[in-house]
């Protein structure tokens, strides 16, 4: 069953000067438990698509439906609240808070959700254990390698128990060993816990692991392949 669906989704930047058509009437859906790579050259629209799916940007036309709710029609405050409760993000540059420990970075979104403090600490430590960082809960980002920081980012994305996780070039800054270790973790979570991952990526290492590969060209879906 589709948890995400777009309807004639379009995005035009600079409409009043030199229009850039980042998305052109994109219709696509994603089911729960997918492990999907969205690929394409720079400027193809893949990051714009992820930003629309995550409610980080508003479309020029069309809709983004998540469990039947049109997030593109929501007021900004409602969309922020919806994003907080339903969507996890992993970014290329980690986006960890430098002065926070690994535990505090993972806990932050749960604090925003106003959960019980004991529950927050327990879940943060469990997630850090799952991503192979048990014992490093008190380390700050500067004390962690790039691969370890990205694992903290994955744990943070999972903390809110989101409907799905959007990962924008999550392996781009990682060496091969770190990238493979990270992909192992995400693939295990996908298979064992049915966590839905949608990647925007140039990285063949990610594409090789995906069970669905969507190729974008000039803001449109060029090819959509499911890998058996």
In short:
The protein is an alpha/beta fold. The chain is built from 7 helices and 11 strands. It has helices spanning 46-53, 76-86, 102-112, 117-130, 146-159, 176-193, 204-209, and strands at 2-13, 20-26, 29-31, 35-39, 61-66, 69-70, 87-90, 164-168, 197-200, 212-217, 220-226.
Q: What does this protein look like?
A:
With 228 residues, the chain is α/β, with parallel strands linked by helices. Helices cover 36% and strands 27% of the residues. The chain contains seven helices and eleven strands. It has a six-stranded mixed beta sheet, with helices on both faces. Strand 8, helix 6 and strand 9 form a beta-alpha-beta unit. The chain starts with a strand and ends with a strand. The model has no long low-confidence stretch (mean pLDDT 94).
Euclidean distance between termini CA atoms: 18 Å
- Return Rg in Å: 17 Å
Into which percent range does the helicity of residues fall?
25-40%
Oligomer: single chain
Low-confidence stretches: none
Strand order of the largest sheet: 7-8-9-4-10-11
**Strand pairing plus helix content: what structural class?**
alpha/beta
Portion in beta strands: 25-35%
Question: Would you report the number of β strands?
Answer: 11
- Helix count? 7
- How are helices and strands ordered from N to C? EEEEHEEHEHHHEHEHEE
Overall geometry: globular
Q: What is the average of the pLDDT values?
A: 94
Largest sheet: 6 strands, mixed
